Automatic annotation (TrEMBL):
Localization terms from the record: Cytoplasm
Protein's name in the database: UDP-N-acetylmuramoylalanine--D-glutamate ligase
Mur ligase central domain segment(s): 107-286
Task performed by this protein: Cell wall formation. Catalyzes the addition of glutamate to the nucleotide precursor UDP-N-acetylmuramoyl-L-alanine (UMA).
Keywords, sorted A to Z: ATP-binding, Cell cycle, Cell division, Cell shape, Cell wall biogenesis/degradation, Cytoplasm, Ligase, Nucleotide-binding, Peptidoglycan synthesis
The protein's annotated pathway: Cell wall biogenesis; peptidoglycan biosynthesis
GO cellular-component term (any): cytoplasm
Recorded superkingdom: Bacteria
GO MF: ATP binding; UDP-N-acetylmuramoylalanine-D-glutamate ligase activity
Family assignment from sequence similarity: Belongs to the MurCDEF family.
Protein source organism: Rufibacter tibetensis
Binding site for ATP: G109, T110, N111, G112, K113, T114, T115
Amino acid sequence: MQKIAILGAGESGVGAALLAQTKGFDVFVSDRGSITEKYKQQLTQAQIPFEEGTHTLEQIYAAVEIIKSPGIPDTAPVIQGAVERSIPIISEIEFAGRYASGKFVCITGTNGKTTTTLLTYHLLKSAGLKVALAGNVGESLAGKVLEGCYDYYVVELSSFQLDNMYGFKANIGILLNITPDHLDRYEYQMEKYAASKFRIAQNMTSAEYFLFNQDDAEIQKYRAALEVLGTLVSFGLKEAEGLAIQYQGQTVQASFNQISAKVDTSNSPLIGQHNQYNTMAAVGAALLVGIAPNQIEEALGTFQNAEHRLQPVGQVDGIRFINDSKATNVEAVWYALDGIQEPIVWVVGGKDKGNDYSTLLPLVQEKVKAIVCLGADNSKLFEFFSQTGLKMVETQDVQEAVQLSKDFAEAGDVVLLSPACASFDLFNNYEHRGRAFAEAVAALNSTLA
């Protein structure tokens, strides 16, 4: 019996362990950290040996193959030792892909991949297809393959997952954008990060489809150098020759691969220019798998995005409150401000990551009527945005931030939490911040009821 070692006992590691066991492998799971009780129970119930808080190297290096968690860098000593011993190191996605009989729709990009993945899954599921949701969105592909009976797998892929995929092939691969991120894992070389993202199109032939954002400068920069053999399907908002999918008003116009379709997006709840790109990509994938435009239109109207991404969380006295806590960088805030048409009271702040706010200035001057700073240290925000002459206040309390925002707003306005900063100064993470904001809105609503 061949042995497989699995490094990391989170969602992907445990999913891979359970799948490997059913395929007849001798499985050993090792995690340098602690394993959550849920995953311990799953491993114990399956009688799969595991360890936590250490790596027993003789056990790991006895494996014919190592499946590693995407969070473990190649520089980790346990990985370096495996490389020295010529033991293949793969991702859970690579392993699971070997045993899946369905087709893969795979999505990557620095920003927007979760929204696009969830929307694509929703469009396929609403059309009645047997479809699974997996990958970086929170569920292991291995676990879904183990369940069986799926015709399609919609998979969100991070660059870390892509890095250890070799034989895997997407039937439809989507690349949304490339902006600098996680460069510490790529020797601070943008071309290495871009090459990682382009692995979404690896092993393709003309029978597979590569959907890419033609408006993205980094994609265009590296596309020529990184050869893609799949059938190219471009999408974008800017007029360009040969554009396969584009927005015209509130309609996605598609013309490629003998497909000619118009999809009305007016019922979609998604806000902002970045979501137009996400929608074009998802609609393109849905058309490729044969879903009719009228089915897509109906499903767009029933889509609910993941929490904390331009998520409506309530209305008080005609004022809409929107939770965009996931917007932890300036670019994401730009898209939020750009996409909202009503006057905005902007809730911003947190742990600054060296932000340059200058790109936001024109939008703030055009659309924002007041700024509420919610952070431990708001001095940089005050220093920069004081030039706008807008009303600015600060607080370290989310309930006070919501109350102050309501005081600045009037019926028809939007209060937007779009922080541009990390959450770690006052909150555990962006989810904690978003939930606290939503709870404060609900509390204000009940107080006024």
